[in-house]
Amino acid sequence: MTSPSLHLSAVAPVPSHLSQRPPLSPHARQAAALGQGAADPVDPSVINPLDRGAVDSLDPDAVESILSELAHKILRSSSQGRVLLIPPDHTRKHSGAGRITARLYELLTREGAVVDIMPALGTHAPMSCDQLRDMFGTDVPLDAFIVHRWKEDAVRLGVARSELVRSLSEGAVGLPIEISVNRRLVEGAYDHIVSIGQVVPHEVTGMSSYTKNLMVGCGGKGIIDGSHFMSAVYGIERVIGAVDTPARRLLDWAADRFLGSSHVVHVLTVNSMTARADGLADTIGVFCGDTREVFENAARLSRARNVVRLSAPLRKVVVYLDSGEYRTTWLACKAIYRTRKAIADGGHLLTIAPGLERFGEDDERDRLIRAYGYCGRAKILKHLDRKSELRENLSVAAHLIHGSTDGRFKVTVACQKLSREEVEAVGFSYLPLGEALAKYDPGVLRPGYNTAADGDEMYFISNPALGLWEV
Prior knowledge:
Number of strands: 19
Number of helices: 18
Shape: globular
Largest sheet: 7 strands, mixed
Strand content: 15-25%
Helix content: 25-40%
CATH topology of the largest domain: Rossmann fold
CATH architecture of the largest domain: 3-Layer(aba) Sandwich
């Protein structure tokens, strides 16, 4: 068996009304550019970072061409006919990864392959049957799905020694980090592993997906804790939106060292920053391959299309969090992560979260967040010196640092399933949900700058997961 070495890509063309700008290469304007092996990489010129205009949705035929070619290569190079698909979970439903996964499942199984699907949950709660159906459709049988249990299913592969971690983090952290991933990635039961994910600015790795989908999404406690903590100590403002970051270096090192023989292929999407009525964002680029260059090309496109650069800091930001996606502050703090570089000192972030019902994704993390709260970087680091339970849960400590504003701006949470007392106890201000919706109706507000009837000026974001806002 040989790995299906390949580079496949498709990028949406720039709309005709932007044609006066520097044109993209002919390679980029093809519906799909299909190559054979590393000698034909994705042409970096497919991305024109100077073009800030809107992008048409990628032609579905281009995506179909890529998926068909990928399935063909996998089937041709498989000895056992077994494939593991690793898509994101429902928190990335908008990326369209569910449809890509379902299509690959169909293409492979109709030729006799045995295909399992294991969503990259990381520490997130398992997807419900309704969530699986909503994201992946009804044609994929539910028994094809495997739940990644980050506490039970991970096997220890090795350790990133403290001196390596110190070097990767530029001196920020010097602790050893255990490398552990779901056993299915390394036991050899699959001919190929296909990792599917959206590349978008991310608070831990700088840009999401690629090796993060494997090493964190399918990782165990050690690497999840370690990667998140080294990133938090290094500083979220230095990390988010960057391609080369401490956590990314760690994950790339670990994947190269321990997953090199697992025959991994990455399918990476870049999406628009506006979700349609069905909850999906238009796909503007698909990059497929087995080298880091595929990630770099996707990241370059995402940085050009998914980062809103503002001319001045924002005094007030209103973020709406969909009730089906954001049920915990573990996820809802994305509103803070993605806007903090855009909010003025003394500014105000209002998060409207009708589905918010708890803080952590599991009981233990919920308890720890309630116990320590979003009290700021300095206090969390002091707690780590004294509290063993926090030292034993470094990803929680990292989350509390990431979700704290250190007093620079105010965060108000509008919800109904958590009480005022609960919200204020973790360090946020509280606003009744009905009062927030009456004044800031997400069905009326338009993305960007708005002025309410009483003259209140604000900047509205309908889904913070779709990008990054900065000055």
